[in-house]
Amino acid sequence: MQMIKKILCVTDLSLISRNAEIAALRLTDLFKAEMTVLSCGEYYAHVPNNYFDENIIQPQPDFPHTEEYLKFVEQKKLETIDHFNNISKIFNLKLPENIIYEIKLENEVTAAIDVIEEKNYSYDLIVVVKQNNNFWEKLLFGSPAIEICEESHISTLLMPESEEWASWMPKGIIVGSSLTEESKLAEIFASEFALKTNCEISILHIIDTVNLHFDMNVSHIFPIDYVPSQVQTQTIDEIKVQRINELNKIKDKLKEDFNLKNIHNHMDLGRVGDEILKYIKKYQQNNLLVIGASGGSALKRFFLGSKTIAIEEACSIPLLIAQKISS
């Protein structure tokens, strides 16, 4: 059963958003999906009116749904339609027949969550650009792309904004697997992409030395909550053998379920984020990383941070964060 049937593309129609627009169009055609364009932006550039006889003025946010507001929204919809017609011609892309245009004047995070809630969380994939903000911008304002992902609980493809990714389609896929339930959806998404594009999958598992250290020392932090961990009774070599067996089972199942042939495993030891980024740098034929959303206990996230955010900030290739709404 195909996972990707409805795609939401978040854009402000700027050059920064272009890679998300192009990728969404290509994936919509690849998966024969329904595409919704969310054209949004708290600070929409006001261009001279080309669609109505009278001039359309930027409405004040304190007065939604006035006549002025509705005219401005209508103009933005016409601009968005023209914009996507031009994108499809410039990059020789097929414009889907069932494309839907949603217009919001809020910032991209608020607008995306509003549309997702209005559509009852029916989207299967969100496509948005990962902006290259500097350290202080990320510290003060966070990352809109990762915020959309975390707030929506919907699988999200983060496209780099540099021009080199304008022609992107998956050629080699890395799926970061933690060998848990959280990774199963990432493995399925990666397999669907590989099946459609006929590219190689690398199932990458990192034995996380940080978490091993945490598990072995948690009793010194909170002795009253301590539950003996299996990790403390196993050697690293025993853990490696166990994980290799689990990886082989995953590989065999994906081969059988998706009829995939070009799939292999890789395992290493270290800090998860660092080792994933090293693997990307070493094997540059891969141009898509698929991971599950960060899980684990609130206690571990408090002390160790979110692997998802760390990888999102440093990842140089498109990143798909697979997740689903908890029942």
Automatic annotation (TrEMBL):
<feature type="domain" description="UspA">
    <location>
        <begin position="3"/>
        <end position="158"/>
    </location>
</feature>
<feature type="domain" description="UspA">
    <location>
        <begin position="171"/>
        <end position="321"/>
    </location>
</feature>
<protein>
    <recommendedName>
        <fullName>UspA domain-containing protein</fullName>
    </recommendedName>
</protein>
<dbReference type="Pfam" id="PF00582">
    <property type="entry name" value="Usp"/>
</dbReference>
<comment type="similarity">
    <text>Belongs to the universal stress protein A family.</text>
</comment>
<dbReference type="InterPro" id="IPR014729">
    <property type="entry name" value="Rossmann-like_a/b/a_fold"/>
</dbReference>
<dbReference type="InterPro" id="IPR006016">
    <property type="entry name" value="UspA"/>
</dbReference>
